[in-house]
Amino acid sequence: MKLGRISRSSPDGDQIRLVAVEPERERVIDLAQAYRIARQGTSASAAAARRLAAAYFPSSMAAAIAAGPAFLDAAQWAVDRAGDDASLPLDDVDWVAAVDSPVIRDGLTFPLHMQQFHEKVGGGLPNPQLFKTPGYFKGSTGVSYGHDQEVPYPGFSEFVDYELEIGLIVGAHGSNLTPDEAQERLFGLTIFNDFSARDVQGPEMGMGMGPQKCKDFAYGIGPWITTMDEIADFDALTGSVRVNGEEWTSTKAEGMIYTPAELLAYVSIGDVLQPGDLIGSGTLPNGSALEIDKKLRPGDVVELEISGVGVLRNRLSAEPVVAPWWPQPRPYPFGAEQPEETAR
Question: InterPro entries from the entry (predicted)?
Fold first, then answer.
């Protein structure tokens, strides 16, 4: 099943609705509406049907996933019973981020991307630790953008880049898991665009505290989630990038250092996976403009595609968004400054 979130207008303002997506029929199905109609067809009162629909299909995808198998069972039941009565044309809906993740983590697991990235920035070889334990950072959940939503071009950067990744969506709580146990908690896949400000990344990462403004200005998530029962072979997934309609990259999701299950299991050690968490696979080979000597500009339209999932499209704003304040450097009190480290 493919599941997403859209924004629909109502007398009380815009509401976020969970939908089942049927690309082959060029439609989405408002799940709460379908469930309410179907329940009333089984003699439930209108008020009771609304309450049940709201419980199964809140605006939060993470909250819905937390219901476990009951969520997918209710969604399939609603689609089968009243999908035609609650459908909307695929091209006429307004998308938001496919999941409102409690935590976003982004991995680094494709060696070819690592090698090519370091060659471009002159940073030597990738850190050997990445081959000993999976690497990842935590990103801001407040800057998640859905399919066809405009992404503000940050005024503090002159080199904004995309990163083509597969978003692993967690389906259930878990801590200190084995890879087999983690695999059972993998709910589905989405497309994850880890937008990056390359000219900010080098100096910022040299602080030794991980990404900050170089990452936390935009994450593209969507267009929807494809549940794992529709994914036959993760390694066989293919990807592509188009900018303004021109193909820049064609790639494949093979050669990960650690499997998705191992990545989830490692995250769970001493920590807790939560329903709806998103863990980025790491950038696929040639999945960034930096690797292929290209560069995004304000107003560019970026389309990321993963086979079996869909296409995530975002336009960068035509004008950079300039913040009203930026910190001024302070005197360095420890003698001569050390050279800045290169980006990672």
Answer: Fumarylacetoacetase-like_C, Fumarylacetoacetase_C_sf
DSSP notation for 109-131? --HHHHHHHHHHHT--SPPGGGG
pTM of the shown model? 0.96
For 84-96, how does the pLDDT look when each residue is reduced to its tens digit (9 = 90+)? 999 999 999 999 9
Instruction: Indicate the SS3 state at residue 19.
Output: strand
What is the reported pLDDT for 121?
83
H or E segment to which residue 318 belongs: none
Strand-pair category, 144-145 with 219-227:
parallel
pLDDT at residue 342, rounded to an integer: 45
The CATH class for the domain spanning 104-315 reads alpha beta
Structure tokens at 122: 């002159």
Question: Rounded distance, CA 283 to CA 201, Å?
Answer: 16
Amino acid code (one letter) for 15: Q
What residue type is 52 in one-letter code? L
d(CA 237, CA 54): 35
Burial class (CB in 10 A: 0-12, 13-18, 19+), 166: buried
Query: Where do the domains of the chain lie?
Result: 2-95, 104-315
Q: Which two tokens stand for residue 254?
A: 């093979």
**Per-residue tokens: 278:** 């998103």
DSSP 321: B
Question: Above 90 in pLDDT, residue 192?
Answer: yes
Give burial (CB, 10 Å; 0-12/13-18/19+) of 184.
middle
- Cβ neighbours of residue 134 under 8 Å, at least 6 residues apart? 107, 108, 109, 257, 258, 262, 263, 266, 267
Which range among 150-159, 170-179, 333-342 shows the weakest confidence by mean pLDDT? 333-342
Provide the percentage of residues in the chain whose pLDDT is more than 70: 98
In this predicted model, what pLDDT tens digit does every residue of 251-267 receive, in sequence order? 999 999 999 999 999 99
The dihedral region occupied by 251, where left means phi > 0, alpha psi between -120 and 50, and beta the remainder, is: beta
Helix crossing, 31-40 with 69-82: angle to 10°? 70
Which one-letter amino acid corresponds to residue 295? K
